[in-house]
Amino acid sequence: MKRISIIGTRTRAAMTALWVAATAATAATAHAAAGDVASLYGPQPPDDAAYLRVINVSAQPARVALSGSEAPQTLAPGVATRFSVLTPDTPARVTVDGKVLADAAGDVHAGDAVTVSLARDAKGWHATRVAGRYGRIDGLKATLRAFNFVPGCSAKISVDGAGPTVFAQLTSGAQDARAINPVSAKLVGQCGTAASAPLPLPSLAAGDSYTLFVYGDAGKPVLSGVRDALAWPPAVH
């Protein structure tokens, strides 16, 4: 009986050691998996954040500073910033060449995404502000967004200018969005019969988000685009 008892004790000890080792291995695997996920997606902004970006639709470069997480930068014509992340109680503010633009300001709420276009005339810089929400439309497809900043133009965006219509009757100062299958295509923006130069759509995967901008004037529209990206985490200075 003693011999059986000794064997049982050793067996229990071995099983305990195996369980401890298995638990440690499982924890290590879970930690590694969490690290992989963090590496893949990166740190995420707070759930109650709002977002702000700028596109320069003028023919001149602009020195732009946004409230939030995006660093000050010089924007060439047709170039857009990333989305600056605004934490609660951070006002939406756009500064161009050292001057705060009053027409770019406005209240923002959690989940809002504000896009501001910058135009310049003899009186200086002016802003057009369009606010929306940026939830994913379809996780199995890419999301395509469009903004029309052409005064007096009901814009159309189509494939090659004569192919399938991607966005139709996009009024001035408006935005729209749709889910698309990841495809290769050249898109053209139109104001009536006036057409932009073709814009090659980059390779987009399911879950990606890309924004198109129509700007210029109704007689000579311009179409540009940018991948939607967040300036997060904030740069360390």
Structural class comes to alpha+beta
Going by CATH, the architecture of the largest domain would be: Sandwich
- What is the assigned CATH homologous superfamily of the largest domain? Domain of unknown function DUF5300
Instruction: Tell me the Rg in angstroms.
Output: 26 Å
> Mean of the pLDDT scores?
84
Mind describing the biggest β-sheet?
5 strands, antiparallel
**N- to C-terminal distance:** 73 Å
Low-confidence stretches: 1-41
Strand-residue proportion? 35-45%
Percent of residues in helices comes to 10-25%
Tell me which oligomeric state these chains represent: single chain
The run of helices and strands is HEEEEEEEEEEEEEEEEE
Pfam family, one: AlgF
Family: Belongs to the AlgF family.
Subcellular location: Periplasm
Main location: periplasm
